[in-house]
Amino acid sequence: MNRETAASRFEPTVIAYCCTYCAYTAGDLAGSMRLEYAPNVRVIKVPCSGTINSLLLLKAFEDGADAVYVAGCAVGDCHFLRGNLQAMKTVEYTKLLLEEIGLETERLEFFHIPASAGPLFAQRANQMTERARQLGPNPLRSGTPFGAGGKLAVPPDQHPPLPTASFGVLKRHAEQEQ
Amino acid sequence: MNDEGQNLGGNGKVGAVMVVGGGIGGMQAALDLANAGFRVYLVEQSTAIGGRMAQLDKTFPTNDCSMCTISPRLIEVGKHRNIELLTNSDLLAIEGQPGNFQVRLRKRPRYVLLEKCNACGDCLEKCPVALPSEFDAGLAQRKAIWRMYPQAIPGAMAINKSERSPCRLECPAGVNCQGYVALVSSGRFAEAYELIRQRNPFPASCGRVCHHPCESHCNRKDLDEPVAINNLKRFAADWVAGRRAEGDDPAPPPAAQIDPAKPAVAVIGGGPAGLTAARDLALRGYPVTLFEAHEELGGTMLLGIPAYRLPVEVLRRDIADILAAGFTVRTGQRLGRDFTLEDLKAQGFKAVFLAVGCTQAVALTRSTDGGPLAGRELDGVLLGLDFLRDVKLGRNPRLHGKVVVIGGGNVAIDVAMTARRQGADRVEIVCLERREEMPAHAWEIADALEESITINPGWGVKEILGDGRRVRGLRLQRCTRVFDDAGRFAPSFDEHYSHTDADWVIVAIGQRSDFSFLGPDDPLWDAGRRAIEVDKLTLQTRLPWVFAGGDMVTGPSSVVEAVAQGHEAAESIDRYLRGADLHTGRTKEKTNGAPLPPHWQAVAERWQALGPPDDGSHRRASPPRLPPQQRSGYAEIEMTLDEQSAIAEARRCLACGLCSECQQCVAACSAGAIIHDMLPEEVTLDVGAVVLAPGFEPMHGAIRPEYGYGVFPNVITSMEFERILSASGPYQGHVRRPSDGAEPKRIAWIQCVGSRDQQCGNDYCSSVCCMYAVKEAILAVDHVPGLQATIFYNDLRAFGKGFEAYCENAKRQYGVQFKRGLISTVKERPYSKNLLVSFVAEDGEATQEEFDLVVLSVGLRPSPTAVELAERLSIRLNQYGFCYDGGLSLGGTGRQGIYVAGAFAAPMDIPETVVTASAAAAMAAEDLHEVRGTLVEQKTYPPERDVSREEPRVGVFVCRCGTNIARVVGVSELVEYARNLPYVAYAEENLYTCSTDTQRKIIATIHEHRLNRVVVASCTPRTHEQLFQETLREAGLNRHLFEMANIRDQCSWVHASRPKEATLKAKDLVRMAVARAATLRPLEDVQVAVQQRAIVLGAGVAGLTAALSLADQGFETSLVERQSRPGGLALQIHGTSGTLAPSRYVAELAERVERHRLIRLYTDTVVEELSGHVGNFRLTAQQHGRRLEITGGAIVVATGGAAYRPDNEYCYGQHPAVVTQLELEERLQQPGFAASLAQVVMIQCVGSREEHWPHCSRVCCAQAVKNALAIKRANPAAQVFVLYRDMRTYGFEELHYAEARQSGVVFIRFEPPHKPQVSVDAAEGRLTVIVRDEVLGRPVELRPDLLVLSTAARPQPDAADLSQLLKVPLGPDGFFLEAHMKLRPLDFASEGIFLAGLAHGPKSIAESIAQAKGAAARAATILSKGYIERSGIFSEVDQQHCAACLTCVRLCPYSVPRIDEHGVAYIEPASCQGCGLCASVCPRKAIYVRHYRDEQLLAKVDALFVPAEEQSPMAAVWQPGGGSEP
Fold first, then answer.
1. Cis before B61 (ω within 30)
2. How far is B156 from chain A (nearest CA, A)?
3. Is the per-residue pLDDT at A155 higher than 50?
4. CB contact under 8 A, A15 and B1022
5. Do A32 and B1056 touch (CB under 8 A)?
6. Would the CB atoms of B1505 and A151 count as touching at under 8 Å?
7. Does B1474 sit within 8 Å of A60, measured CB to CB?
8. What digits encode the pLDDT tens for the residues B41-100?
């Protein structure tokens, strides 16, 4: 542990804006299926992925999020017909803004996660966590003059390293307690 | 129940419906009816609703948690204003006629008041009676007072009682034996002692000398030996005495409150009867004086019972307790010598109880010849009773030599054993009776024999021999019989004589009362009977103020009988003095008491067959005894049981009465909710219709005895395994096996146990077992990684939507093995308790495999009580007891106005149950539509509190979700954390925050702490938000002042192996939720007017049925069909067997539709556009080039499906003799067609279960069987081969499958890699089919003259277009996707749009009809009201900031925003869907979505990154006076 690099000890914080009808439901399904995934993601439920706007995304980075993603229904499946398409546009546009301020655009993503895709939900959570880990801490986190950046909810050292998440394998509680 | 006038509407109909059965079916029917404006009585036999589904762990094929999905619905039913729950109730009779029935019900007592019990569970801790938990399928125990399961509705406890236990009924004194045994078993000895003392003031003494009739009637004797009840009584008494000796009194005797104003009572005689009566009367407040002739109290107990059986100090202890009651005792006062009854009267005693006992010994005066007995005056001839008394009084008479005791009763034994202790060298007992006739108790005789006392039975005394002064011996004559035929004492003797030496002769042949106190003419005296005459029931003598009882009335009897008499006398005297009737309510009649409890009956049978287990664990306790050689003095022979043995012995009690009425719960219940003497009640209710949904019962595992269920502990039923899997089950969700609690590594499922089995009389298929077994196997592998799951099956019946994929997944991802074949036996290995499953594979090879656990997939059958009910109601049942009519009028019962739903109609799974329940609701609603709304109550809420000026006060409720959350997340830590967050005024944890009692608590807490925001940290808001919002409304808070933190689905369930991180994450989620909650504002919801008209799309069977049902419920209906005539696919199905002729049926339906005045049929009409919303849909359509606009409040989508055309498969289209089943049906209509066929081959799964189309088409197997039978019937000579993969003839279709096999149809199974090869003979043009027969293991060649393809049912080719147009989703199979596969099979996620028929997935016509009716019922829940409430969450324009740039107008997917008369954007709340797209694109940020404003979402983001301790109060977001959103 003490020989590990700084990057591997860094535990990113990821925000996921999830639409109620698909992505959030998939998250619940991942729960029902007991799919283990990275505990770094904090879900914020929105009625539709189209509800989000650039401000919500930028503010998350400003506060210190290491990665942010928006998850909505599959193309054509949007409960509100076109909300997810608009959300994709919003994310693309915000990426341009990130680029402008010099933040890696990979820290922001849009994903389609259908309601029935519990495993995909878990996979996306792992994917963004891993990506943020590779990118390292959000530079806005430290010394930012505005917002609350730099203050982690949890000191990074309290996070043990993340094992490779295993999909679809439901662990026995007895094992988990060991 | 209701006012006449209110009840009766149109045609005298009643706007109420009774639903019988509180399972998922009954709940659905009740909700549909209640939401459609009917009053509903939901009658449930058990104590709570929920039925079988509540017992299940997960449901297939989504693995949804059964409890999670059912629990909000339980609450909805429990809370519904228009549903009256009648639990613990049985339907007795239905009278009257359809529309106006009178239903008679019996409400069995719950013994707990629903309105008072708050389910705190305090009683559970006190209840000493453990019974097998029915909910846990007997794998765990529950108490006699219990709640079926934690989420049960109603949540109140209930008490389970049988009749009273036989031990209790047999006790003359009425001691609650079962009660004190139960208390001993749970270690509560003082309570046991107190319970005994209530009815028996001599616990310690009686615990030694009682002849315990309780034990002779103990039901345990049928298993092995009765419980040692009396020893337990003695144990409890001695335990208390032991504690008292140490200076601690855990059971102080009750002291009386004597009321000097009450009339004085005299009791004469200080024996058990007198003492009991004196105590009872004193405890009732009477001043009592007890007169005793001797110097010490106790009577015969003191003077007649030897000390080795009852030490004097033990008796004194009991008497001291009795005297604590507070009555006066005057010893040395003999009636007739020292005072008379008249004296007592003169002294002011108003009543007297005479209980002077039988103290006079009977002397032997007659010889066997009837003459005077010679030698009876000799020295050394004593009377037994006097001898015993002298010994007890310390006069210590010494004996020597040989003592002969004459007599065969208990006293004779006592005399003999005492004589030995008084110096006799040898003791012999001589008696008239033969050994087995001796009246002494067997155990007393055994005691005597143990002490080397000789018994010489069957002799009469001819003469006492002596030397003129002293006795020397006896001359005996053989007694041939003691009693004459009438049972009178009339000994007869033969001419055999014998002699015995004797130094002493002690006569112990009887005793009598000393009536010398009575004058010869005393009015009490019955000269004829030489006794005091008393009323047997009341003990009143000829003098009304004098009562008599005890031995002086009954003759010499036992202590406990005397106690009983004392109680009766006290009762009579009390009544007499109060002037009450002495007889009322008193009876001597005895019942047998409770039988062996049901769960012991099977054990009894097994033990009777095999003997009880020889491990000693079941043996009756025997207290230690003094060895005979040490019995020289008067030390007690028998000792008291030690604590451990007493508890073990008490645990042998079978709890026959179930509840023991020990009253511990009453003491524990601070709410005063428990009423033990609650009585059953009969009520009659007026209803317009009845829906029967009594559900099913899983078959008993022993239905196939060769599988060893009930014998081998590790053979269990599927229901037991469900409970094992369940987190709330017996092993908290750990998969363990019953024998040793070990985790099984190999589990076998045996299918068709009790199904498809002629041998056990159930030859139908139970429809659900294949799927639940697959589900259980998947879950078992989930729980135990590496577990080897094997399913032994016949045909895998995965015929439902998504089932095929589920099974494939089980094979691929979970490694579940499917083995086709027959199980012959299951045997147990002796030590490991593993099981050997002998199994014959399809190819005939017999193998044996070892498993750790075997699960029997038991079938479904109607419960016997349901069958009995149906018979009582004259409802038609099939041969298996199902209410199945086999025809198309699914849901009918043969009795008009009474409908059936769920598994009582046929074995079915949950969604089908829900569908048939909705269908039954529709049929009831059709009957009663004129009186809809006449008996409903509107839900009213308390006025909403204005919280706008209050600073946020957030209450946080953290749910443990049983162990679902608490096992991973540190809940207590989380609560503590939440308590310290800004604005949090209150935080607590709950076992289940969703339970009804917690809801009540939340309301109270909101009031108490003046909360104005609530955060629940539990599961997902998708399922539970509404429930908690309702609670807020009931607490007078706006429902939008609520936020949830999903710490289960998004935390504990997905980070189970990392509890530390999970707890950290849960803290984050709660902190975020609290932060957002502080920013929430009250929103007023919107009422949307509803057009009470329906739109039905598609006029096939489903559409026609739905339209008719809606119209019959009184709603105008527009039926839209794109074809030129209604009927759909069913027109092509002709049916062949009897009643079922779909094509005719559908034609009749169409005719009815066309005639119906409320239905408008639009044919040739193509839907183009849908706008509007629930309550107000606008459909634009094209008809013959014209544009139509059709409006309605709800839509039923019944657009059907399409038949797959197998082009280029199996030579279809290339050879005229290759047809589909549908085409075959057409041809079978031609006369003589069937007769022309010599060989027919049918191929199943054409276009189904293929790689590119993996779905099962559900109906083709039954259709093929039906058509094969039709051919066979028309032409028995025809050979018919059906080439299949699994025959999926579920339910009663199985009977046709069996019939087909019997009538010679040959079924050949093939596997997909070897699909049948069809070729056309080039020369003859004949068809050749080659198929590899999996049973024979080789190819078979067939040359049919007709090849029939069982082709798939597919979605409409343009279903996707309609899906887009209606904005409702399709599933992966291209059929429309319902809102929830289990509980909302007829709903789309979009409100107001419903689904029925083939559009939903492949199904039979009957199933389509049921769905259509069900969808009509669902639609009616919207249409029946003039308005619906819509959420207050919608987009709003800040018109001052609007620049009228039109961005929102262009972008809204629903075209809602418009530029209003002020020249700025306006959004209509009723139309707005609340997606917030406009808000996100508004360049001036002049639009916001209520409840999801930027700052409300960002509150969460901010809170995530700001540690709690540094969070500043969120004044920036919360502003006083903000009020509701502007």
1. yes
2. 29
3. no
4. no
5. no
6. yes
7. no
8. 999 999 999 999 999 988 898 777 787 678 778 878 987 889 999 999 999 999 999 999
Bridge partners for B820 per DSSP: B793
> Do the Cβ atoms of B1475 and A27 come within 8 Å?
no
Partner-chain contact B1053 A32, CB within 8 Å? yes
User: In whole angstroms, how far apart are CA A10 and each of A135, A159, B342, B1161?
Assistant: 10, 8, 104, 67
Q: Which helix (H) or strand (E) covers residue B914, if one does?
A: helix B910-928
Which of A22-26, B190-194, B310-314, B674-678 has the weakest average pLDDT? A22-26
Chain A contacts of B1475, Cβ < 8 Å? Answer: 47-48, 50-51, 79-80, 83
Contact list in B for residue A70 (CB cut-off 8 A) is none
H or E element that contains B89: strand B89-97
Question: Rounded distance, CA B32 to CA B1126, Å?
Answer: 28
pLDDT over 60 at A146, yes or no? no
Q: Which tokens is B329 given?
A: 């005792």
Contact at CB, A53 and B1062, closer than 8 angstroms:
no
B826 within 8 A of B837, measured Cβ to Cβ:
yes
- Best of B1480, B1484, B1488, B1496 to disrupt the A interface (most A CBs within 10 Å) is B1480
Tell me which of B151 and B944 has the higher pLDDT.
B944
Each residue of B269-284: pLDDT tens digit? Answer: 999 999 999 999 999 9
Does B1479 lie at the interface with A, CB-CB under 8 angstroms?
A: yes
| Structural domains of chain A ordered from first start | 11-135 (3.40.50.960)
H or E element that contains B40? strand B39-43
Rounded CA-CA distance B1090/B1173 in Å is: 10
B98: tokens are: 């359809």
Q: Under a CB-based contact definition with an 8 Å cutoff, are residues B1371 and B1399 in contact? A: no
For residue B1451, the chain A residues in CB contact (below 8 A) are: 82, 86
Give residue B177's identity as a one-letter amino acid code: C
What is the torsion angle, in degrees rounded to the nearest 10, for the CA atoms of residue B593, residue B597, residue B602 and residue B603? -100
Mutation site for B-interface testing, chosen from A20, A73, A86, A112 by largest number of B Cβ within 10 Å: A86
- Which residue, among B172, B258, B257, has the nearest Cα to B212 in the 3D structure? B172
| Contact criterion met (CB below 8 Å) for B702 and B826 | no
**Chain A within 8 Å of B1521 (Cβ-Cβ)?**
no
The rounded mean pLDDT for chain B is 90
* CB-based contact B1479 A122, cutoff 8 Å: no
CB B1525 within 8 A of CB B1436: yes
**SS3 (DSSP) at B596:** coil
For residue B142, give Cα distances in angstroms to B135, B152, B274, B738.
Answer: 9, 14, 42, 17
Q: What is the pTM of this model?
A: 0.80
Strands B1239-1246 and B1353-1355, bridge-based pairing:
unpaired
| A29/chain B closest Cα distance in angstroms | 8
Residue-wise burial string across B1186-1196, b where 16 or more C-beta atoms lie within 10 A, e elsewhere: eebebebbbbb
Q: Are B688 and B33 in contact (CB under 8 A)?
A: no
Interface contact A42-B1476, CB threshold 8 A: no
Residues A34, B1056: C-beta atoms closer than 8 Å: yes
**Is B472 part of the contact surface with chain A (CB cutoff 8 Å)?**
no
Tens of pLDDT along B1060-1086?
999 999 999 999 999 999 999 999 888
Confidence of residue B1512 (pLDDT cuts 50, 70, 90): very low
Task: Give every CB contact of residue B553 below 8 A, 6+ residues apart in sequence.
Answer: B531, B532, B534, B539, B565
What is the token pair recorded at B1329? 């089919």
- List CB contacts (< 8 A) between B1040 and chain A: none
For the record, the structure tokens of B488 come out as 């009178």
Amino acid at position B1057, single letter: S
CB A47 to CB B1433 under 8 A?
yes
